[in-house]
Amino acid sequence: MANIIGVGIPFGLSSPPHALKTSTRVGGAATQFSHSTRRMVAVKAEVGGINPEIRKSEDKVVDSVVVTELAKPVTPYCRCWRSGTFPLCDGSHVKHNKATGDNVGPLLLKK
Fold this sequence. Notes:
Layout: E1 3-10, E2 20-26, E3 29-35, E4 40-45, E5 74-77, H1 92-100, E6 107-110
Antiparallel strand pairs: 1-4, 2-3, 5-6
């Protein structure tokens, strides 16, 4: 069973053409509201958390890089927590995606 770590990420920031409009009177003034249907996504983590072994002695793992200090024009950073070269991506997400049906990929930082 997976733990839900985030809920309520809306898709589509614009209202669809079938949005409903409702008018309401508040203190004598007419107010119009637009109701639209939005898709929501629940993000699920594996049992035991998404970070099984990386820097577990820290309360929160946070990495930052000054873009001008990058050695390459494009540097991939791991977002699946499975890279043997963490925080850099080594392609471990490919095996993870095949095993779980996930679609995670690296964060690409460009100079």
